[in-house]
């Protein structure tokens, strides 16, 4: 008798569709080999969708392999050149600037311009603010498809052995990287055609060009890839954020929640992240049950890179604390894989879930809020429904995964699990007997970092955020309410400076003021040891006597040149900020209130509540004189390191921009011409226009806030009267 289905079409999955063959690809090495082999069998159309696509990625890593058979870009060119009816469509996320250093510098040039004309490359920017295109999908001739967590990019390749010093595990520049674990699934037949439909939908949204379905001869399935299953239904679950005319789909989240609720004995999870609040609550409910399932979670020791380590790891630590508090019956274990020979962690990038012997799921979706409703995702799942051959495959899949992490044969894992009847006991018995192990995941986050990250951070939202809501989260109300006047005055000041520089070209001012006069006083010290201290002292003293910081930055870059003006000005500003911060701390809140007034002093409450983020907001959005804010921050409960770091981060963008403008001004003064003057005029107009637009938006926002305050006051008054 079949078991009840978990995946239901139209409820928690897009489609349930037959697949002639299914194969599981453990890690990127086997996947890249299979993809390259299938690519050589393509006849009509290849769709590649990815978070990242790198033309330099080496698919085959045998010694001496020619680029035309091993590296993505030459391989694509060679195959398309000899197959006149073949088109290749490459769709990748139009990524955020913070990822620029991690990616190929000019993929549009390499994949879009230097390749064959039937290779079509497109950046996908059709998504809400802050979202990403995160599906990792390849479809060949609508007959074979790969889906999972692996992109065709660098820093992904590895084998299930995860050798500590594998010479093949290097990036495009030959630099080695750490062991890396991921998963991909291959499907064929109608399931592949359905994923082809999904790929064509994505291409249409990005380009507004419709592509027809594919009907090609032949079979692109690689003969060296054995099928793990035949003739089985596959469920396709998606996340599609609401955006313009596109309707929202949250099948990924719904299938996760229904799968967790359906688990009876074991719930095995591998995932790069663990921050989704809906998943956290669902797991906690199962842990609180007296007879709930055992839950084993395998993730990376820490996130990749300092930024994710300082954000997503904080959120994961909070989720793990909540789950451990709910684990009243000792049914939760969290691990990370590592090599015992070198105590080197294996990075887990896979997105896998196995529910009992009933459901197996592989996809692109992280257990993060943004994968539930902000980023585009695609997961594949298959169910046993009581069929013995599928039950055996799911058991074997889980055993093979654990065997990879534990460094023991899969048969030993399966035997230990059968004897003990406990997934946790199986891992505990085997986790330190091989050359690889699953080590307990104990996440400790510094208190100061935990305090800095808000409970609902804008970098991991469960749905698209309205830009105004992001503004509310990052910028305290007390700050943006008082920013309109200073912002407008600053824009007018900067625009006036640029127009004044342009005036030297068109008016008699050129005869009155020689640019050399501006820096004549600095000539005696130029090139001497005292020049740098003077550059620092200029900004330090000027800011203490309330000279606008904007003017000091521009003057410094004109007088001392861009590099010394930038470094010296920034050092002077930081020195001034630190000095007046400690003065404010020393004199106390009462005297600071008397010095700077009550409006500026109200900012101290927001600074104390938001800490680092509040200081950054104050620096990015001018609300008062530089020195006044420093005094207020010192008198508030802001920690010194939060103030100094926030000041540095907040000042840096403005210093860079104003130093560049200062260089333009200097160029216009020293060699006035139409080519140097017109950019100043246009920049001035843009700055003033933006200043007026921002001021107008803040004024409207202030009126809305005032109306809301009045309404709240009226409601409260009526409640008291009632």
Describe the structure.
This protein is α+β, with helices and mostly antiparallel strands and 722 residues long. The chain has 3 domains: 15-240, Endonuclease Chain A (Endonuclease, Chain A); 251-452, 2-Layer Sandwich (Endonuclease, Chain A), CATH 3.30.870; 475-716, no CATH class. Helix content is 50%, strand content 15%. The strands form 2 sheets. It has a 17-stranded mixed sheet that branches. Strands 7-15 form a two-stranded parallel ribbon. Helix 17 (484-506) packs antiparallel against helix 29 (674-721) and helix 20 (531-544) packs antiparallel against helix 21 (549-560). The longest helix is centred in the C-terminal third of the chain and has 48 residues, at 674-721. It is globular, with a radius of gyration of 30 Å. Residues 478-516 have low confidence and may be disordered.
